[in-house]
Write a structure and sequence with these properties.
Length: 132
């Protein structure tokens, strides 16, 4: 009986600690929201977006690859919002959600192989990483 009461007390203390920790997140004093960190995140997002735009312009990625990014450069890996999360097949329409399956030489080897005939959101995201 005493062990059971001790277990419930420990569980209540743990739950309170989690709630207090969560309540402390996101405050103005949180270093994740400093001006410098925000500027660094914005710069990284802009750089990522510029890189993907350049790869699209060079023909190394299809235009729909821009959908992998939000306008601020943060990731949008699940842009199709289908049942398979980031494994949804990308289609040929500008938004990737309709039309025939997208066919593109993502690995730039000059051949359209089987893997290039069923491109998923994850495949497209991985291709946007490209060389640094």
């Amino acid at each position: 009986m005493a062990a059971h009461q001790l277990t419930r007390t420990a569980a209540a203390i743990a739950a309170a600690a989690i709630l207090l920790g969560a309540a402390g997140c996101g405050g103005d004093d949180n270093p994740a929201f400093t001006k410098d960190v925000k500027q660094q995140m914005d710069a990284k997002g802009a750089s990522r977006r510029a890189k993907v735009e350049s790869l699209v312009h060079q023909g190394k990625l299809p235009p729909v690859a821009l959908r992998v990014l939000h306008p601020n450069g943060t990731l949008n890996v699940n842009f199709i919002d289908g049942p398979d999360n980031d494994r949804d097949v990308v289609r040929s329409s500008p938004d990737g959600t309709s039309g025939k399956k997208l066919v593109f030489d993502l690995n730039q080897d000059g051949k359209i192989e089987q893997a290039d005939r069923t491109i998923t959101e994850r495949d497209l995201y991985d291709a946007t990483l490209g060389p640094e």
